[in-house]
Amino acid sequence: MNDRFEEKLRSQQFRQVPASWRREIINVAPAPAWREWLWPSPVAWGAVAAAWALIGLLQLATPQPRGNGNGGHLSGEAFQQRQLLMTQILEARS
Amino acid sequence: MSETLSLAQVYDEHAQALFAFVLNLTRDETDTRDVLQEIFLKLARKASLLDKAHSPRAFLLRMAHNLAIDLMRRRATRQANYDRLAAEPVELFEALPDEPSFRDELAAALAELPPDQRAVVHLKLWEEMTFEQIAATLDIPANTAASRYRYGIDKLRDRLRPIYEEMK
Asked: For the whole prediction, is pTM greater than 0.90?
């Protein structure tokens, strides 16, 4: 009886999984890898990003000393021009 | 390899077995869907999960069992009448025209089994696993799996004997 009974039970078919589930379950969008990585402390990472943005803005807003690309050394021609300009200013004052 | 494709393949191969197993355990279609969703979410997040599995089916059934048991425990703490809900009839089997009363009785009899016996009976009868495979899947000793099956099948036989004898 045992085997027959067990065979009888085994022959019972379970319901089919609802067809609509396939799409719902397979298309479940996992969080992107970068979001998983950031997830442990999104506030801290946001604060770091905001700090960098603030630093960038301050950098842009602060007037930079004008350089000529020679690390502060004037070329001969520029030096002469500046010397001439200074002379003219001094003469104009006197 | 496309992850979506591999998820689809895994679903097509194993979803029906997982559905039947989890529905038999939880007796709740919403919980069953939650468990399946959780399994496939884990697979989507870590596609390599199945790579090391000796038997993908056994691995997935183990995941399903653990998730279903967790869900049932959480639900049991939330609502004291879990046992009553578990015993409520659920459409477990395909509604074929033959032997509807036997199927209904079987579904009810399965619901009366403790979940640990029900899991073993399900894996033995409908997944056709050996006791060693069941033991590995449920993380129990093989002799425990065998004794749970024996207890479970005896209860089913006692419960279904009248209607089974009538059908013969």
From this structure: no
